[in-house]
Amino acid sequence: MSRLQVVSGKGGTGKTTVAAALALALAEEGKRTLLVEVEGRQGIAQLFGTEALPYEERKIAVAPGGGEVYALAIDAEKALLDYLQMFYKLGSAGRALKKLGAIDFATTVAPGVRDVLLTGKACEAVRRRDRRTGEPAYHHVIMDAPPTGRITRFLNVNDEVAGLARIGPIHNQAQAVMRVLKSPQTAVHLVTLLEEMPVQETADGIAELRDADLPVGGVLVNMVRPHVLDEDAVRAAGGDHREEITRALTAAGLPGAEKLVGPLLAEAAEHAQRVALEREQRETLAKLRVPTYELPFLGEGADIAGIYQLARKLRKLGVGA
To answer: Looking at domain 4-225+297-317, which CATH architecture does it have?
Structure first.
């Protein structure tokens, strides 16, 4: 069982919505999940209709069966202050560094420091235990991660840091994070659409993750529209059946059949083209040798009801379990 579920995807594929739905799906049956945001967009708060998330773990939803979903928007500056206190016991000295601008410099200018802090905070939540019971504080941690084009470097930055700092707490912390990220405890899921560019970026992302020895989870195909025509109708849509359709509509007593035929044929041809393109993209995804799951298009948009609908689907498919 993977306890850290990383969700990435090309912009516009709905990765934040899928990450939120996955947190709900895995929180069923009385479990606790933590949904982590690392990009500072407050996308989770917008989805759940809450105020902007502070730098603290806050309960935002209750899943079917009584499970609880907590959320955390990781702030790199505050994470660095935590780090300085944890390893160097700086306390007020760390706050003084913030006033001097050193914290802001470290998180915005120093290469890789920001990503080290973000991944480190998520992995700390994975490793954390309840002091009373000794059980994991969270059964699953779900990270709404950066887009596919950046995900491998984002997750692998601690490996680079461990190589640069060969001794001391920074080296030890970086190694501890990479032990989580490259272990069976972690699964990196990529969200895509059945469109050429997102599918190609997904294929490239999986290749990069594998090259870096990072664990690939599954491909989540989002916003899949239903097929309104069967295979025979799809094939027929490519031909010229204007006269035949006009006669059928007229026989059915539909007024103005001649004017309706053109738009109907155009829509049918567009649908047939989309079905053909989606078939090609499914074939491309099948070659990646990764579990693939399809999620429905939400006609009403990604509101709370839609997130719960996706959560039920993910639960049924067994994603992340």
So the answer is: 3-Layer(aba) Sandwich (3.40)
